[in-house]
Design a protein that fits this description.
The structure holds two protein chains of two kinds. Chain A is mainly α. Chain A is built from eight helices and no strands. Chain B is mainly α. Chain B has a domain of 216 residues. Helices cover 76% and strands 3% of the residues of chain B. The radius of gyration of chain B is 22 Å and the shape is globular. Classes of the chains: A mainly alpha, B mainly alpha. Chains A and B meet through helix 4, helix 7 and helix 8 of A and helix 5, helix 6 and helix 8 of B.
Chain lengths: 231, 497
C-alpha cells in the first residue's frame, strides 16, 4: 500500500466511499428483496475493505466474516432461498405515510445531533465557518453520517420487516464509521466496534429467524395486527 | 451521590477470594442455565439447592462491602482495561436481581409443568435466564462504558430471545418490535459513547466524571445515550412495545422483565446523568415531566385494560414514571433533598421489583388455573383461588403505596423530598398516581369477588406456584418495615460526596 503514490490512494479512498454510498442506497431502495440482500452483502464487503483501508485489519476480517458472510447467510435464510416456503420476491407493502411526526422527528433529531457533535469534536476553533468545518471532517465520518441518514430514513419509512432489518444493519455500519472517525485509532474504539458487530450479527440472526417464523405462521411481513401486517 | 473516589485506592482492590465470588455471581447462573438446557430441573427444590452458592456469594459480597467499604476491580484484556466497582448500591442490586431470578426460576419449574409447555423451547428458558442474570450483574458493577455496553446488549438480546420462546404469532411480532427498538436504541448508545470517547479519550466513568466538562458535545452525547436507554426502558412516550410483549410472553419471563430488565436502563441513565451532566436542571425537569406523563398515562391505560396481563404491564409504565422523578429531585437540589430522593428512588425500585414480580406470577397462576385471560371473566375466583388473590392484594398494597410496604416508605421519602425542594408539581403527580393505581388495582377485586357468577372449572396448580409469589409480595411488605437497614447501607456509601 505504501508503494502507491498519494494521488492514487486518495482516488481509491474516494472511490471506496462513493461505492459504499451507492451500495447502501441500492440495498435500501430496492423492492426486490433478493437483490436488496445481495446488495447488502456487497456493502458489507466494501465495509471490510474500508476497515482495511483505515488500518484495522482485525475489524476488516471480523466485518467480512460476521457482517458479509454470517449476516448475509441469515438474511438469505429469512428469505427462504432454498426452502419450500419462500418470502414473496418483492416488497409490495406501501411505505409508512411520510407525514407521521414520530417517523421523521426522531431520526432527524438524531442525525442533527450526531452531525453537530462530530463537527464540534473535530473543530477546535470556535471561529471556523461551516464550510471550513466540513473540510475538517474526514471522509469516513462524512460517509458514515450520510449512511446514518439513509439508514434512518429507510428504517422509519419501510414496513417490510426484512427491509427494516437491512436498514438497521446499514445504520449500524454508518454508526461504526462515525465512531472510528471521531475517536481515531484507539483500542477502546476497536473494542466498541467489535462488540457492536457481534451484537448486530446476533440481532440479525434473531431477527431473521423471527421474520421466517412469522411468515410461516400467518404470512405476516410487517408489524401490525392483521395478516400481512396491515395496521 | 455516585462516589467513585475509591477507584484509585490500591488497598481497596478485590482480593482473589472476592474475585471468585464476583465471577460466581456473574457466571454461575449462566453455567447453571447451560446445565439445565440438557437436564431441565423437574423439582423446585433442585433449583433452590443449585442456586444456593450464587446466593451465598452475593451475601458474602454484601457483608464484605458493608464491613470494609466499596471495592474496585480492573480487568486487563490486552491493552484494554475494564473497570468494575462494587459499592453498597451495586451489591444490593445484585441481591435484588438474584432474589427475583431465583423466585422466577422456581416458579418456572411449576409453570412449565402446569402449562404443559413444549419441552424444547422450555429448556431454552434456563440458559437465557442465566444470560440475563449475567448481563444484569455486569451492568450493576460496571464502571466503564464498554462493560456497560456489553452488559446492556447481553441482557437485551437474552430478553428478546426469552420473548420468542412461546412461538405464537403475537409473541413473535411483539418480540420483533422489541428487537427493532432495542437494536436502534443500542446504536444511539454507541454513537453517544463514541462522542464521549472522541472528546475525552476515555471510557471509565470515574475518569470521565473528572475530565468531562459540561458543553455541547457532552450534552449531545448524553442526549444520545439517554435516547437509546429510554427506548430500551419503555419510558413514556416510547412505551408502545411493552404491553404486547408482556401479553404474549411466558409468566416467569414477564416477571423478570418488568422487575429487572427495564430497571437496568433506568439505573444506567441515573448513573450517567449524575456523573456527566450534574448541572442540567432543565433537562432533568424534562425527564421528570416525561415520568409524570408516564404515571398518568400508564395509570389510565391500566384502568382501561381488559386483559389481566395488560393491566399489570401498563401498571409498569406508570410505576416506572415515579422513578423518573428522581432526576429533578436529585439534580440541582440541596443535599438534604437529594439524600431523601436518593433513598426513596432505590426503595421504590426494589419494592416495585419484588411486588411486580409477585403480581405477574399471581396473575399467571390465575390465568393458568382458570384458563381465562380477561378481567371480566374472573368472576367467582375469590372462593376457589384465594392464595393468588391474596398475593395480588399484598403486591397491590406495595404498588399503591399503603403502609407498611416499601412502596409507602418510598413514596413518603419522595414526597418529603418534593416538599423540602419546593417542587410542588411532583406532589400532585404522586397523589394522582396513587389514586389511579388504587383505581385500576381495585377493578381486579371487583371482578374476582363477584359471587353471582356461574362456577368455572379450575386446574390444580403445584403449591410452590402459590408460595413463591406470596413470599415475594411479603418481602416487598417487609422491606417497608426494615427499610432503614438497606438505606443506611446505601447512604453510608453513596451520600458521602
Amino acid at each position: 500500500m505504501a508503494m502507491l503514490p498519494e494521488a492514487v490512494m486518495v482516488a481509491l479512498d474516494v472511490m471506496l466511499a462513493v461505492l459504499l454510498l451507492v451500495m447502501a442506497l441500492a440495498c435500501l431502495v430496492d423492492r426486490c428483496l433478493w437483490r436488496a440482500c445481495r446488495n447488502f452483502v456487497c456493502f458489507a464487503v466494501l465495509m471490510a475493505l474500508t476497515w482495511w483501508q483505515l488500518g484495522s485489519p482485525l475489524l476488516a476480517v471480523v466485518e467480512a466474516v460476521l457482517g458479509a458472510m454470517l449476516t448475509g447467510l441469515s438474511l438469505f435464510f429469512a428469505l427462504g432461498i432454498d426452502a419450500h416456503h419462500r418470502l414473496p420476491r418483492r416488497d409490495t407493502l406501501p411505505g409508512s405515510p411520510p407525514s407521521g411526526l414520530k417517523s421523521w422527528l426522531l431520526p432527524l433529531a438524531w442525525l442533527v445531533m450526531a452531525t453537530t457533535a462530530s463537527l464540534l469534536l473535530l473543530v477546535d476553533d470556535a471561529g471556523t465557518s461551516f464550510s471550513e468545518a466540513l473540510m475538517v471532517l474526514d471522509l469516513p465520518t462524512i460517509v458514515g453520517l450520510v449512511i446514518i441518514g439513509l439508514g434512518l430514513w429507510a428504517f422509519t419509512r419501510h414496513r417490510h420487516l426484512l427491509r427494516r432489518l437491512l436498514a438497521f444493519n446499514v445504520l449500524g455500519s454508518g454508526v461504526f464509521l462515525v465512531l472510528a472517525g471521531v475517536t481515531g485509532p484507539r483500542i477502546e474504539a476497536q473494542a466498541l466496534i467489535l462488540a457492536g458487530l457481534i451484537v448486530a450479527l446476533l440481532g440479525s440472526l434473531l431477527g431473521a429467524s423471527l421474520i421466517r417464523r412469522l411468515f410461516l405462521l400467518d404470512g405476516r411481513l410487517a408489524l401490525g395486527s392483521g395478516p400481512g401486517g396491515a395496521e | 451521590m455516585n462516589d467513585l473516589a475509591a477507584l484509585g485506592d490500591e488497598a481497596l482492590k478485590l482480593t482473589p477470594s472476592l474475585w471468585a465470588a464476583v465471577w460466581l455471581v456473574l457466571g454461575g447462573p449462566l453455567l447453571l442455565g447451560l446445565v439445565a438446557l440438557y437436564w431441565p430441573p423437574r423439582r423446585m427444590l433442585t433449583v433452590v439447592a443449585a442456586y444456593l452458592p450464587v446466593m451465598a456469594a452475593t451475601g458474602w459480597l454484601i457483608v464484605t462491602v458493608a464491613a470494609s467499604g466499596p471495592r474496585h476491580a480492573s480487568l486487563a484484556l490486552g491493552e484494554l482495561t475494564l473497570t468494575w466497582y462494587l459499592d453498597g448500591l451495586a451489591t444490593l442490586l445484585m441481591l435484588l436481581t438474584q432474589t427475583v431470578l431465583l423466585a422466577s426460576a422456581v416458579f418456572a419449574v411449576g409453570y412449565c409443568r402446569a402449562a404443559e409447555l413444549p419441552s424444547r423451547p422450555a429448556a431454552w428458558l434456563w440458559p437465557l435466564l442465566g444470560g440475563l442474570s449475567s448481563g444484569l450483574t455486569l451492568i450493576w458493577i460496571a464502571a466503564d462504558l464498554l462493560s456497560l455496553y456489553v452488559g446492556l446488549e447481553l441482557m437485551g438480546l437474552c430478553a428478546v430471545a426469552l420473548m420468542l420462546l412461546p412461538g405464537e404469532a403475537d409473541a413473535l411480532a411483539a418480540g420483533m418490535r422489541y428487537l427493532l427498538y432495542a437494536l436502534v436504541g443500542s446504536l444511539a448508545w454507541l454513537l453517544g459513547v463514541s462522542l464521549l470517547l472522541g472528546a475525552w479519550g476515555r471510557l471509565d466513568l470515574a475518569g470521565l466524571a473528572a475530565v468531562a466538562e459540561p458543553g455541547t458535545v457532552t450534552t449531545i452525547a448524553v442526549a444520545l445515550l439517554s435516547a437509546g436507554l429510554l427506548l430500551k426502558a419503555s419510558i413514556f412516550p416510547l412505551h408502545a412495545w411493552l404491553a404486547p410483549v408482556h401479553g404474549a410472553a411466558w409468566i416467569p419471563v414477564s416477571a423478570v422483565h418488568a422487575a429487572l430488565v427495564i430497571k437496568a436502563s433506568f439505573v444506567i441513565l441515573l448513573k450517567l446523568w449524575l456523573l456527566l451532566v450534574p448541572g442540567q436542571v432543565v433537562a432533568a425537569w424534562g425527564l421528570g415531566g416525561l415520568g409524570s406523563l408516564a404515571v398518568l398515562w400508564g395509570g389510565l391505560l391500566a384502568w382501561r385494560a381488559s386483559g389481566l396481563k395488560a393491566l399489570v404491564a401498563y401498571s409498569t409504565v406508570g410505576q416506572l414514571g415515579y422513578l423518573m422523578l428522581a432526576f429533578p429531585l436529585l439534580i440541582g437540589t440541596s443535599d438534604a433533598v437529594a439524600t431523601l430522593a436518593w433513598r426513596g428512588t432505590w426503595l421504590h425500585l426494589a419494592g416495585h421489583a419484588l411486588a411486580k414480580a409477585a403480581m405477574f406470577m399471581a396473575v399467571g397462576s390465575l390465568v393458568l388455573a382458570t384458563g381465562r385471560s380477561k378481567l371480566s371473566e374472573l368472576a367467582g375466583t375469590s372462593r376457589r383461588l384465594p392464595l393468588p388473590l391474596l398475593t395480588f392484594g399484598l403486591a397491590a398494597v406495595t404498588l399503591m403505596g399503603l403502609p407498611p410496604s416499601a412502596g409507602f416508605t418510598a413514596k413518603w421519602l419522595l414526597l418529603q423530598a418534593a416538599m423540602q425542594g419546593q417542587q410542588w408539581i411532583w406532589i400532585l403527580v404522586l397523589v394522582l398516581g396513587t389514586m389511579l393505581t388504587a383505581a385500576y388495582l381495585f377493578r381486579m377485586f371487583r371482578h374476582s369477588f363477584d359471587e353471582q357468577a356461574p362456577p368455572l372449572t379450575y386446574r390444580r396448580l403445584p403449591p410452590g406456584m402459590d408460595l413463591v409469589p406470596l413470599l415475594l409480595a411479603l418481602a416487598a411488605l417487609a422491606l417497608g418495615l426494615v427499610a432503614d437497614l438497606p438505606l443506611n447501607f446505601l447512604s453510608a456509601q453513596g451520600a458521602s460526596s
